[in-house]
């Protein structure tokens, strides 16, 4: 009986010219979003590879100079995009794609797409993820707002019930028919995106992540199918039901994400970039506790070394004191950066937690976080990229400072030069993307909310009774 009801639903849609036009429009805007995102990712990939290659060539081809000056020539760290970012670019649009690494400081990310774009980016970056998260629910609403109350107005619902079909089966059939229809769009769309991304990224595709994305987006689709059918079943007037569904869409997909972001910023405000840099400078100059000036630290290190090696001056040390003290200064500044950036990362993570918990009122927030994380474009991935690049920066700067300490004499800053081949000994940076299991550890609550939404709506559907609604 359920299969007959589903087939009847599809037959009615096939006879409706408006449904055909809506379907064509959905396919059209989805293909536009896919082409747009593939074009952007292709350009980004080519630009990153060329920039990384050019940066390496410039590092290797620089003239032989003092190791610390060579370190100041710097290196660049470039994010390693994944093929799934063709589906959902996540935060990579806003956080930049590279970072310049040099001694003494951690630099900001460069070349953020949001810095290059106008205010239109505030409304969302056109991508397959945006289509599936924001636009697809609208189409589901258009297919379900009159699915039950429309049958009641035509009198066909009463005929079905008179033939012994339970009201629950009617609702389930309506929901399942809508879900199968949109799943027949969603699955090929994801597979097409995956195939084209696979070609673009030369076979770099995580099948486990792709399968997980298909599952969560399917559940998201089911949630909206259930919402549409339930509202149609509980509101007799068709005009009222579509208005109510649109209000739900606006609240969950537009208002709640904005409210959650504003609330998170108010509860856990971020300091300005000026305040951050000022705090780091004060920690370096005056000590992490504010009572350990830079000059006093240098004198203490010098005295300790003289006592340890039983010499009268730093010139008598078995290594170049200038290189040693330079690395000590580098280590201390790194501690200062760690102290302040830890606070920044903690604030960002707390902001995300606020938005995550508010996902109980918005499946859009839930699917957005899950999608970004799975595509290696969430907050944790951005922090991990900064951590990896910073670890590399410290390693290569230490390597150059140690060359100065071990191979040069005191007070030869203007005359000492690194040996040939030293630049080549500094390996290039290769960012490693995390596994799906690592990524999903940060979105456990979102997975729970997704199940809570779907299970709750299923319970409401199976507890719905015709005599309570259309009495």
From TrEMBL:
Entry keyword Coiled coil: no
Matching InterPro entries: DUF3526
Taxonomic superkingdom: Bacteria
Keyword terms of this UniProt record: Membrane, Transmembrane, Transmembrane helix
Record field: transmembrane: 21-40, 123-145, 176-201, 207-231, 238-256, 436-462
Pfam families: ABC2_membrane_2, DUF3526
Name listed for the protein in its UniProt record: DUF3526 domain-containing protein
């Amino acid at each position: 009986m359920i299969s007959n009801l589903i087939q009847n639903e599809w037959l009615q849609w096939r006879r409706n010219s408006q449904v055909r036009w809506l379907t064509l429009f959905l396919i059209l805007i989805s293909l536009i979003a896919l082409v747009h995102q593939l074009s952007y990712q292709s350009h980004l990939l080519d630009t990153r590879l060329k920039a990384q290659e050019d940066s390496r060539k410039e590092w290797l081809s620089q003239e032989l100079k003092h190791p610390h000056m060579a370190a100041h020539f710097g290196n660049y760290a470039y994010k390693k995009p994944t093929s799934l970012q063709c589906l959902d670019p996540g935060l990579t649009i806003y956080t930049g794609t590279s970072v310049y690494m040099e001694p003494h400081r951690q630099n900001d990310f460069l070349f953020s797409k949001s810095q290059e774009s106008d205010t239109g980016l505030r409304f969302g970056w056109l991508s397959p993820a945006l289509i599936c998260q924001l636009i697809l629910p609208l189409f589901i609403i258009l297919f379900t707002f009159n699915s039950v109350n429309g049958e009641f107005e035509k009198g066909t619902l009463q005929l079905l019930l008179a033939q012994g079909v339970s009201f629950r089966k009617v609702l389930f059939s309506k929901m399942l028919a809508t879900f199968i229809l949109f799943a027949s769009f969603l699955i090929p769309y994801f597979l097409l995106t995956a195939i084209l991304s696979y070609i673009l990224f030369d076979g770099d595709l995580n099948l486990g992540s792709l399968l997980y994305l298909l599952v969560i987006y399917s559940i998201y689709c089911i949630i909206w199918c259930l919402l549409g059918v339930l509202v149609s079943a509980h509101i007799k007037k068709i005009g009222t039901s579509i208005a109510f569904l649109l209000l739900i869409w606006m609240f969950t997909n537009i208002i709640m994400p904005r409210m959650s972001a504003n609330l998170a910023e108010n509860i856990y405000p971020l300091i300005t970039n000026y305040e951050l840099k000022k705090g780091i400078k004060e920690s370096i100059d005056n000590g992490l506790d504010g009572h350990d000036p830079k000059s006093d630290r240098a004198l203490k290190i010098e005295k300790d070394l003289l006592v340890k090696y039983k010499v009268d001056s730093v010139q008598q040390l078995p290594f170049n004191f200038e290189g040693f003290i330079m690395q000590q200064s580098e280590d201390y500044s790194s501690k200062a950066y760690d102290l302040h950036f830890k606070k920044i990362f903690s604030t960002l993570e707390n902001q995300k937690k606020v938005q995550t918990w508010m996902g109980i009122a918005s499946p859009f927030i839930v699917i957005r976080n899950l999608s970004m994380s799975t595509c290696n474009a969430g907050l944790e991935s951005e922090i991990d990229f900064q951590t990896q690049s910073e670890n590399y920066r410290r390693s290569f700067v230490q390597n150059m400072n140690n060359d100065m300490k071990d191979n040069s004499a005191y007070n030869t800053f203007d005359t000492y030069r690194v040996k040939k081949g030293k630049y080549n000994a500094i390996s290039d940076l290769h960012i490693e993307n995390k596994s799906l299991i690592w990524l999903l550890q940060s979105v456990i609550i979102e997975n729970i909310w997704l199940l809570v939404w779907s299970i709750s709506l299923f319970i409401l559907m199976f507890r719905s009774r015709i005599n309570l609604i259309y009495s």
